[in-house]
Amino acid sequence: MSDDSSRPKDTEAPESATTALFEAARRSDLGLILGTLLLVYLVAALLTFTDGLNSVVGLMRTLTFLGLVYALSALALNLQWGYAGLFNIGVAGFMALGVYTMGIVVRSPDPAFGPPGFGLPLPVGIVAGMLVAALVGLIAALPALRLKADYLAIVTLGISEIVRLFLQSSAFDAFLRDTLGVGTGGGSGMGMPRNPVRELFLVDGQRGTPTALGDLVFGVFGAGGLGISNSILIDLGYIVVLAGFVIGFFVLLERLGRSPFGRTLKAIREDELVADSLGKDVNLIKIKVFVIGCALMGLAGILWFGSQGNVSPTPQFMPLLTFYVFIAVIIGGSGSNAGAVLGGIVFATVLFEGPRRAGATVRDVIDAETPASFADAVATLDPTAFLAFATDNIAPLQFVLLGLILVFIIHRRPDGILGDRIETAAAVDLSERPSEGEVDE
Predict the structure, then answer these.
(1) Which residue range is the domain that position 271 belongs to?
(2) Domain for residue 5, yes or no?
(3) What are the residue ranges of helices labelled H in 169-229?
(4) Is residue 1 part of a domain?
(5) Which ranges of 259-281 would DSSP assign to H, the alpha helix?
(6) Which one-letter DSSP state was computed for residue 138?
(7) Which of 56, 143, 147, 430 has the most CB atoms around its CB within 10 Å?
């Protein structure tokens, strides 16, 4: 009898160990994020391995950059929406304030090189961009946070559009030139200062002789080694900086969430009336978190668009950008910082850039003419012709895909990928309470 009773235990042991291992991996934030990135890299390699190493590494660079900048933006939004329940649809506007302020502060005062600036060091410009985004957030928060839910969303959307239209206005650009001697460039935008990461690799930051670090990196991974393009290697250096900022954002928000201030935010999110009845100054706390979130959005805008060489109000800061950031937070799980990072990576790589890359790869192997319209593609009853039409028109169809995925997530998992890990307002975990027997013991 003892042998028979032991056999089921032996057969169940591997299954329980596998389940425990899977559960541990699922509960590991870093494991989930790194696992997602590795899967993305694997797919990127499969899509481009026939084009050479530069194509593979270049696609990985693009996907990683987009994943990190969306993670930064999602973390900033998660502080307002996930922690305090503030429905801010003006993310694009605050990002624009940050990067434009940085550009104005840092650009050369000589108008021969485009819109003039103050010519101050880059760190001063970054701090100024965050302060201006925070200041506008404060001015907006004073009247707007008296509103609830949908009304707050409308106000923040209006503020974002006002900022964009001001930056696009040639009259506003002329006003700044006449009064402060600086400009925004109007609808043409403005050039951004040279990426400081280039200075680590090249003496003049562009095509000069390599520095000691540049000699080492280019010699091992560049033309003298693996053959990766020097420009890709420099971009990968900037991606390392971005990864550092994502980690910094994450640690900051995690510590903030576990502080008394963070627990108050979650209490306001759960029930504002109860938090107010307990003596918390709800309006003041909401203003503080709104200002902090806007400052982080300004910094995210600087790190994202400040590295692109040129910035323009349209189309870079349209409301669609805010919509994308919200999708990232929804996918990851509102209220979870790890979910914000994971949602940003999944959205940028799988939903935003993935269909374009996959569509281009599929179209290269399809030997069929593209139908003139969707009706023609359906009428042919030819799957190859329909696939050719779909891959050639992947950009508009991408919005259909986003809509379907959002409907699926809201229906099947409304809390997002990591929604089960939304932090509670309590200082300790109250989900598992000891039984009466355990208390007596």
Answers:
(1) 28-412
(2) no
(3) 170-179, 198-201, 212-221
(4) no
(5) 260-270, 272-277
(6) H
(7) 56
134 is written with which tokens?
């925070």
Is 428 part of a structural domain of the chain? no
Q: How many independent structural domains does the chain possess?
A: 1
**Strands 190-191 vs 310-311: parallel, antiparallel or unpaired:** antiparallel
CATH at residue 106: 1.10.3470
99-112 mean pLDDT: 92
Span 130-187, pLDDT tens digits: 999 999 999 888 876 676 667 888 889 999 999 999 999 999 999 999 999 999 999 8
pLDDT in tens, 243-253: 999 999 999 99
Query: How would you label 312-335 residue by residue, b for 16+ Cβ within 10 Å and e otherwise?
Result: bbeebbebebbebbbbbbbbbbbb
Cis peptide before 315 (omega within 30 of 0): yes
Q: What are the Cα distances from residue 208, in Å, to 194, 223, 431?
A: 14, 16, 60
Identify how many contiguous H helices and E strands the chain contains and give both numbers.
22, 2
Amino acid at 26: R
Query: Which single residue is written with the structure tokens 């900051």?
Result: 252
Burial group, residue 53, by CB count within 10 angstroms (0-12, 13-18, 19+): middle
Mean pLDDT, residues 358-373 taken together: 79
CA distance 39 to 33: 10
Give residue 14's pLDDT. Answer: 47
Q: What is the pLDDT of residue 220?
A: 86
β-partners of residue 210 are: 202
